[in-house]
């Protein structure tokens, strides 16, 4: 098993936001799983100037049945969202509309390529207004949590077939939800273990790409957030992840520790972990 760990970065907020945060640090870790295929996890972690202020863009894209969709989202999704002139005034509406339009582009590509079967989760996080506002949108099962007063708050939704509302959605579209004889996992049309994703052309009519969106003003009670693929969450609870981060002094170190802990617990999937610190971690330990 091999891994890739990239370094921590820090930036000062600038521009016209009303936020109170002076700096944010973030780190990430990516580790290839035991399965016999190239790593299919992709991510984004960067600060970017937007309309005269600095914003934070963070995402995990966990691909399946190939890397084409996840890599495309890594390259294009944030740029398309920010290019919409309505983003600043109505980010939730813009994000939702762009999820749909990007999926349409992906499906158009799949129509022209016989062997195009790939799909991907997407969990995107936007730090806005000088770091005082966090918007998280997701499809699939790459989860985001926020540490508030040292306790985990889940700010994304795992779109799993066994959830009654998700199963009802699939069945209303003519799809089937059943337990796989291998591993006892619920799947859509005996194939996919999630109900919402980009791509997945062959069963798309039974899936959705409509994101769940969490939009909140951050306060001084909020410490950090974590975005990770299910390679982490399949073997670790939200509260355990928070405890691991609190025991570290840097965002990079926290991301590496989470990935290593998932490996020790037997995770076989690719693991991608982003840790974004809203405060100095050493002040929380």
UniProtKB/TrEMBL annotation:
Instruction: Give the PPM-type phosphatase domain ranges.
Output: 25-278
- Name the top EC class: hydrolase
Q: What is its EC number?
A: 3.1.3.16
List GO BP terms, alphabetically: regulation of intracellular signal transduction
- A GO MF label: metal ion binding
Cite the entry's keywords alphabetically.
Answer: Hydrolase, Magnesium, Manganese, Metal-binding, Protein phosphatase
Q: Which PROSITE patterns match?
A: PPM_1, PPM_2
**Which region is the signal sequence?**
none
- Family designation: Belongs to the PP2C family.
The cofactors required by this protein are: Mn(2+); Mg(2+)
The record's listing under Pfam families reads: PP2C (PF00481)
Cited InterPro entries: PP2C (IPR015655), PP2C_BS (IPR000222), PPM-type-like_dom_sf (IPR036457), PPM-type_phosphatase-like_dom (IPR001932)
Q: What is this protein called?
A: protein-serine/threonine phosphatase
